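User: Is it possible to get a 3D structure for a protein together with its bound compound? The compound here is JDH. I've pasted both below.
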Amino acid sequence: MRFDVLTLFPEMFPGYLSQSLLNKAIQQGFVDVRIHDFRDWTKDKHQSVDDRPFGGGPGMVLKVEPVVECVEAVREMAEPAGRTLLLTPQGRRLDQPLVEQLASERRLVMMCGRYEGFDQRVIDILQPDEISIGDFILNGGEVAAMVLIDAVIRLLPGVLGDEQSSVDDSFSSGNRILEYAQYTRPREYRGREVPEVLLSGDHQAIARWRRQESLEKTRRRRADLLTGGADDQSQSQDE
Ligand code: JDH
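Assistant: Yes, that's possible. Here is the predicted structure of the complex:
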């Protein structure tokens, strides 16, 4: 799968991309991530990518020409042109079903804004799918793009070390329940002991305990998952 990321801050990506799992997938050719700088598509002497908003108001807006020309050029760089995504607080909320849908694409072109966002004509002309990673305000789209890439690539065959772990994730479509508590050695630390049942060797009892743990935790923290509410967290009481 190929990702093209368009940004004013290309230097934010190499650290993330060199992380072992992703780097391995890139080396093996499962994933290809290309970073592009909007500024390379400016034509004026000062390479300006932003300007003051018409009508007044705070902050700066990303200019239409360099952004449209950058996206059009990047779309032409490979086949297929793929889906164009724009990370924005006003977008459709990212969730696991949407991640699964995006993971089935061959190519994603991702636009990262800064400041107060893009000139509206960018959106009217390019018609990107607008996506938000959550109801909070970031300083720009770059971290959101990394979140999206991170969520998508772990679903790609061959990318995750253990094929199973992404399948039975608590948020994959069929299975919306939180994880049970896990323990490893030592058996006791600062007076806290590992639950006896996990040391019993009784696999049926262990499975029962884990199922119970998961249900209890889900009911306490995310009752909305059990009642089937899409993303309503209003019922959660503690933690
Ligand atoms: C892209 C710029 C910062 C956005 C307008 C909003 C007053 C001001 N889940 C997500 N959260 N944030 C982003 C995201 C943020 C971005 C950009 C993505 C580009 N910014 C920015 C909007 C405003 N402002 C708050 N109101 C109270 C108006 C700054 C994101 C994603 N994906």
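The longest strand covers residues 83-93. Residues 232-238 have pLDDT under 50 and may be disordered.
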